[in-house]
Predict the structure.
Amino acid sequence: MENNRLNTALNTLLANYQIYYQNLRGFHWNVTGINFFGLHEKFEELYLEAAETIDEIAERILAVGGQPLHTFEDYLETASITSAPNVIKGEKTVEMTLENSKVLLKQLNELLKLASDENNEGTVAMVSELISVTEKRIWMLAAFLR
Ligand SMILES: [Fe+2]
């Protein structure tokens, strides 16, 4: 059942979601400005959603015979999303969230192709759902910034 290409791609996605998650925590805590109350709450909603997604991806990796990465060291080494330290201005926090989401969407689309090439329906189903959730989030974040 082990599938190295799929496991590797899923672990990269997991690592990216972990950095995205930790960025959201930082924005939730440190955001400032006129939109503080709305953004503080929105980031909490987004990081709770990300935490569930992270668990889903990790357990998907186990289901396809892999081993999910779980250390900060591995995540930093594997992820293409980078940490967003000291981002506190409301607009900037939304811009960073939008950028991170676009990276996730691109990776999800690549993963969808890989999983469907390999007829891995369980992964296809999970990734399809994540794509639509991510597209919706990208629309909303972009609307905030217009
Ligand atoms: Fe909080």
Q: What stands out?
A: The pocket of fe (ii) ion is lined by residues 28, 44 (CB under 6 Å). The helical segments are 4-30, 36-63, 72-78, 90-117, 121-145. The radius of gyration is 15 Å.
